[in-house]
Design goal:
There is one protein chain. The chain is α/β, with parallel strands linked by helices. It is globular and about 65 Å long.
Amino acid sequence: MNSGQRKIDWAGRYMPLLNSIESEYMLKKPLMGVKVGMSIHLEAKTAYLALLLSKLGAEVFVTGSNPLSTQDDVAQALKENGLNVFAKRTTDESEYMKGIYAVLESKPNLILDDGADLTVTAHLEMPEVLSSVKGVTEETTTGLRRLRALHQQGKLRVPVIAVNDAYTKHLFDNRYGTGQSTWDSIMRNTNLLIAGKTVVVAGYGWCGKGVAMRAKGLGARVIVTETDPIKALEALMDGFEVMRMKDAAEIGDFFVTVTGNTTVISVEEFLSMKDGAVLANAGHFNVEIDVKALEHISAEKFEARPNVVGYVMQNKKTIFLLAEGRLVNLAAADGHPIEIMDLSFAVQALSLIYLSSSNLPAGVFSVPREIDERVARMKLDSMNVKIDELSLEQKRYLESI
């Protein structure tokens, strides 16, 4: 058994929701005859989801969703399990895109996307494959932003289920998953103490809330930067300092970007940072920290540790960048905790089953409420937690005028 298979087996021990879905649907095989194309951070947990879809009857075609987030031993294990895999860990964008094209060339009936590269590439470069696509499930905030932009421009030709917006996804995955896994990666790659340091979190969406909350729990002083006045006010009332990035740049020890936007930290901020400041990105794409500008203004560049590159400024100060500015929790660690992804992937699997038997028009749709609630109840059951139910009298009262 190779190391990838051992990783997959370990993940499977802690994914009771996916195991429950397998038990329920194994004989029915609701995805029999369906080609599922997946673009996803290919590691043990996502591999376990891919294997589940295969067991439910699907022919699965898998590639990565970020150049550095594929674990090669896991990809090999999936190949040995009979899946069609076109992913490998690489820093070469063209090599990464070859995997995207290969999955689309299979003409999938359903697409499971993470960041929307499969779906957007199909629309903009390979529209001929869309005739076979019955629907898409999208995992991320960034991916949904792209797909909603496509829809607003009148170019979206398939139905999309917004898995990221399911309560059982963004309330838990984005907050607790990103919060824990981001700091896991930063700490394992730097071996630095967080307590007593100043942490600057750019963005206070659900992911930013998780990163800020976990930094506070580790004993850091936390500063939040925002462009949205409502989110900024929320961060302030949650007990965090709020200021502009240009002001925070002078005092931060760690910087974590979680905005989904571009050029959040650039030349002005780099030049005013402390000697030894550490930069990490927890957003999907490597555009939040302006790495090209950092390269341009640096007098020297060196590898300080695996996944840690030091940039020596003209002023002799050194800034450290983790994972090339890519998604730090996956490019330089193992991603979200297993139990968190069990929740999100249960939503993914049930949404794909739902799409396979539906006939939705093109557009972006919410996860059906019954799927969301079902996943929550499955999780509570797996934890042996019982909750109250409304009595008939209570239901009548809530429905009364």
